[in-house]
Write a structure and sequence with these properties.
The chain contains 4 helices and no strands. It has 86 residues and is an all-alpha fold. It binds magnesium ion.
Length: 86
């Protein structure tokens, strides 16, 4: 699966569970919380937890993209190309 397909699969699951994101601020707060959990996993040297928390960060990023009608893969590739020329 590429990033666009992952984003679509996540949003499909969230649609089925009737929990689509409604509030951008709430999504950003969750994203920051998950980044904090990544930090905690690193501090505790817990590799399994790190994997879960990295996935949670992507989960929240996907929600942020969805709420802003952005394709995460497109956004990332655009930035990757932009950085290439720096
Ligand atoms: Mg988490």
């Amino acid at each position: 699966m590429n990033l666009s397909e992952l984003q679509a699969a996540q949003m499909e699951q969230m649609t089925i569970k009737d929990c689509l994101p409604k509030d951008e601020t709430e999504v950003v707060l969750h994203l920051v919380e998950e980044v904090g959990e990544v930090c905690e996993a690193i501090r505790e040297d817990d590799r399994e937890e790190l994997k879960d928390e990295i996935a949670d960060v992507l989960w929240q990023l996907n929600k942020l993209c969805w709420i802003n009608k952005l394709d995460l893969e497109e956004v990332f590739l655009h930035k990757l190309n932009k950085n290439k020329d720096r």
